[in-house]
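Sorry to interrupt, but I need a hand with the structure work. Please put the record directly below this note.
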Amino acid sequence: MASNEPLVARWALLPLRLVVGFGFVAHGMAKLGRGPAGFGRLLHQIGVPVPLASAWAVTLLEILGGLALLAGAFVAVASVPLLCSMLVAMVTIHWRYGFSAINTTGLTPQGPTFGPPGYEVNLLYIGALLALIVAGAGPLSVDGWIARRRRPRGDAVGRPRR
């Protein structure tokens, strides 16, 4: 983003980047905590080749990709495999359950019961990742720091030094 844009525009995507990054780290850590083998069994059921290796790959992608988003480091590069992962999850798992992420199936004396989530959250992640790819990491990011370091330094009146 150009430095002459309004302050609000420069900072608008920061909360989005942080929430999406945290979300991916949280999902990856949950897979790691339960053991990728359990996620591998789910992948096997839907016909993913080499399910255990794929489970480890997705787990590490979510953790490392989420950390990259949190840091604002290589956001466009990190977003592409995360986006692909969301597309695959949406089409292979969530699509059949419809749009809503909250799929209420009944009510018991203990409270509501829920079925599998639909693809709503996948679409939210995909939209957020596309926004970050297009608009960049924004302020408080490694990408922004790198971009500032690459700019030519100006003299007192703002002209580039030669």
